[in-house]
Fold this sequence. Notes:
single chain; BirA Bifunctional Protein, domain 2; about 20% strand; binds phenylalanine
Amino acid sequence: MLAQLDELYAESLEKLKTAASTATLETWYKETLGRKGAVYLMTRQVGQLTPTERPIFGQQINKIKDELETAYQARLTAVKTTELDAQIAASAVDVTLPGRRPVRGGLHVITQTMREIYRIFGDMGFQVYRSPDVETDAYNFEMLNFPPHHPARDMQDSFYTTHPDVILRTHTSAGQIRAMRAYHPEPVRVILPGMCYRNEQITTRSSIQFTQVEGLAVGTNITFADLKGTLTEFARRLFGANRETRFRASYFPFTEPSAEMDVTCFLCEGEGCQVCKYTGWLEILGSGMVHPVVLRNGGYDPEQYTGFAFGLGPERITMLKYGINDIRLFWDNDLRFLQQF
Ligand code: PHE
């Protein structure tokens, strides 16, 4: 009987050594030390022994039980450690790999140009004044001295809404009246930036939407010399002292006299090329002295007050700066284009 016990012990220990997972270990435990396991079955045989043999057998079986229990715990700890190591190795993260960069947004190139323009005019004392993109015919045309059916309206073919008289502004000049009415009777020195819309046939030279930065100065003793000085200085600060500028007489219903300002062509440096239509010059803004009718519509007495206004195109300026040849690229929103800036 004692020999059987030794055999069981040796056999169980052997099995324990080969158990390589927590699952097999659990089975081993059930079969060996469990409530109906081999060791228990052995104790039931005690009845077949003589009274003198019984205590020796009892002692022996308890010893074996304890030793198997200890061996089991040791094996369990070892197997768990191995399993954990394997799991860690399998799900290993290579911390030396470079991380994935989040995609960073950036400012649209026109926003960048606009901000540069704000800074320059800000230094000259102009405040930013916002006015709506959706306008009435009155603000966009009539109060700017465009009579109904006047041919000058053809220069700015408009997008109409289903509401009669409500249009998308064709130029930021619509905000001139709003700014004057807001500032009256104080002097005005503002820039009005924003998107404008024209129902143009789209070509590389035009687009149905584009931004403008309008400028307006109203006060006493403002002359054409102030207009020229301000805009020449603006061009000098924006393009550097080397780029030349010139004024050409022009016509707008809301300014009198009117002038357009050109800068030397960025492509041919004044030699003459396709971009500048072989003139050597590129137009960047329209300007003029505020028309007396417009001053009056804004609330200012043209006998006492004078002013100048200008409207410049940030897309044009950006094209000049980077040598871009198609204005439609700005609002196509193709990231391959936009990410370059
Ligand atoms: N509003 C004119 C245009 O869009 C530009 C302009 C503004 C001209 C202010 C004179 C004074 O063409």
